[in-house]
Each structure stands twice: as structure tokens, then as C-alpha cells.
Design a protein that fits this description.
about 80% helix; mainly alpha; about 200 residues; elongated
Amino acid sequence: MLDQFTRFLDAAGEYGLAVLAFVFVVSTVEAVFGLGALVPAETALVLAALILAQSPLLIAAVFAAAAGAFIGDHVGFAVGRRLGSRIAATRAVRRIGVDRWHDASRFVERRGVGIIVVARLLPGVRTLVAAAAGASPMRYRRFATATGAAALAWSLLWVLGGAALGSAFLEFAERAALPALGSAAALAVALVLITRARRTAPR
């Protein structure tokens, strides 16, 4: 199974530009208001990082992910700015949880731009925080600065970190002669990280 996974990574690496487009689209869609609870972008970033680990396009993937996250966060901010307090009655908020929306709003009110940086690392809640910032009196310049820094830090963590840790693990699995366990364990590690991040999200 490890050999098959490695062959998949090598084959996908021949389509570097398509992988970059995939990273950008997933990062954007995941950050759009309401969709972050459904689309775990971190899994996609780790997979893309493994595909591009030996490619000069790896750094481009960092910026593609950051740009997508930055744009997606702006969609959430725009929705919040347009709807204001009415956003709590929308179907998207009801699906995610009204309590989580109120928690996000309180976090923004108390902690300002700081929570935007922290929330970028928390799947699901980050889209609520972007919308809550838009619904709050927060000035756009402060939001844009915070979400830009947060998006870059997030992409560096998952793209470069995913490439380093994933490559090291695959190399270890190959040397340790664990072909059946290698790819399954790599996927399990990614799922555990995402599950733990979701559990830290306010409810």
C-alpha cells in the first residue's frame, strides 16, 4: 500500500500547476462563511505538500493556500458587514450552531484582532470569526492585516510542516519495512490533528 501511495504522489507531482490550483480553491472554499465546518482544508494541504515536497512549487503552494484563505476570509467578513446582527438568523449559522456564532461574536468583541489570528488555526470556527468581525465595528484595515498574517502563518504550518513531517514519516515507514501501515498511519495522523483542532473550537 505504501508503494501505491508513493506512486500516486509521484504521478500527481507531474501536475504541479493543477495541484496549486487545487490548493487555492480548497483554501478559498473552506474559508468562505459556513463552509469551513464541512471542508477540512488542512487534509488537502498536507496531501498537496506531500505531492510537492520535492518540487520548487512547494513555496508557491504556501502562497496559494494563504491567498485562498485570505480571499475566503474576506467573503465571510463581507457577509457579516452586510447582514450585521441578522446573520444569526441565517440558515448557515443555524446549521453550524447559533451558540458557536454567539461565542465567536463575544470573542471578537473581547479580543479584537487577536482572535482572528488564533481562529485561523481552528477549523470551522474561523469562518464564523471572520463573519463576526464583519458584523462588529472592527475597521477593515485591522481585519485585513490580521487575517493576512494569520493566513500566511496557517499555510506555512500546514504546507511546509506537512511536507517535512509527511516526507519524514514516509521515509521512516519505507526503511522500517511497514508498507501496509505507512499510508494508513499518515492519513490517521492528519485526521487526528484535524479532530483535535475541531474539539478546541468553541461551542
